[in-house]
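QA checklist item 7 of 12: single-chain prediction sanity check.
[x] sequence parsed
[x] length recorded as 93
[x] structure emitted
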Amino acid sequence: MASGIFNVKLDTPTVDWERYVRDTLGTINALSRKGFAFNVLTKYSDADFMRPNLYYADPLFFFDYCKTNYSRFVTLLHDYPLYEFTIVVRKDR
């Protein structure tokens, strides 16, 4: 479970931060046996409250990325009252 580790990018350019996130997910995947989960701030946050030092991800991109690269068992949770989403990746059984 990786909670909140991708939210604060400080002044890192978004393209570099996204590469870091993908690289880190690859490492997490390689180290996990049954699967993994992570959350990220959502790009669907209220624009008035978004801050430039935080990373707001596209949940559909990460759903597709995990489905394409890690497992066919991927869940996207974006139905709870926070400006974030959670992806759960379960390894093939």
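[x] summary fact logged: The longest strand covers residues 35-42.
[ ] second reviewer sign-off
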